[in-house]
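In the present case, backbone shapes were mapped to integers, as reproduced here:
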Amino acid sequence: MATADGTWAYRDRFGEEFGRTYFRRFGDGVVSSLGLGTYLGEPTDAVDAEYEAAITAALENGCNVLDTAINYRHQRSERVVGRALAETDVEREAVLVATKGGFLPFDGERPADPGEYVREEYVESGIVSREELVRGSHCIAPEFIDDQFDRSLSNLGVETIDLYYVHNPETQLEERSREAVYDRLEETFTRLEERVAAGDLRYYGVATWDAFRVHPEHAKYLSLPEVASRARAAAKGAGNTATHLRAIQLPFNVHMADAFTVEAHDGAAGPESALWFAQNAGLNVVASASLGQGQLVEGVPESIAERLEGESPVQKAINFARSAPGVTSALVGTRSVEHVRTNLEACGFDPMGADAFDRVFE
């Protein structure tokens, strides 16, 4: 697993190649403020090979945050992360490996009959009850997450997962009350706290798309204070002295800045945005969709671009995400070695300071 000694040694190896605050605190270690995501791409051997090369290039040039999920590319993304970790000359202790569970994954490819596959693999086997499924494809029940966690350990070829996210729990709100979803999260957090105690998990979190950046009246809203409260209760229920809820993941970019602008969560001094609440609560924030899933490749709005360092729209977009308060790492999905190098070059420039970032929204 990622350790303090391993990640600090990694920073010492690469830190001089980047701008200030490129490496940021995560627990007792440090991680790069640029992470590599593995969501996109067809489930083919050719794409696997591209990802393995890109992940290796990232690890060996200063990026030590890898983000995946068991359902990404039908488990292939986890497996290619595992192969890259095994082949690189970078020590395992230097790398933060994050994955997710919640969406029922296929195995290597899309089956001819997805419904039959889900029924045979998950329902009839007793891993998931029909009542727990939403859309026929999503579940956050503790027994299911336990099963998925074990599969992820195997796919990744690691003994310990550094950060495990409950994946898009707001999906459950399509068929369940908000209170029922909080209750289920608490039960699953308790199981994850038990995995921490067992030693095969370091920290856990919640990865979302809508939940934390929309207004409280929105159908997909979940309260960060309530989620944090349920995590504290879970830690107590598992016999741990403190919660191991460490991070949230949500989209953040020039066009999707709701996590900074929407004050949807009750803080000590009143309503706060997700970013400010997380920072005040000691939660790390991992920004997804830093390039707007490719939309920002063509350009950042001129009024913002002129305030950002970087030699291209991509580099400026990366540095916008890295500049937001509370963001520990900004994810960029790529399977191109060339793009990995361009993205890392962006981090040779300093991010905006807090005052400069605030002025963007004045």
About this structure: The two ends are 42 Å apart (CA to CA).
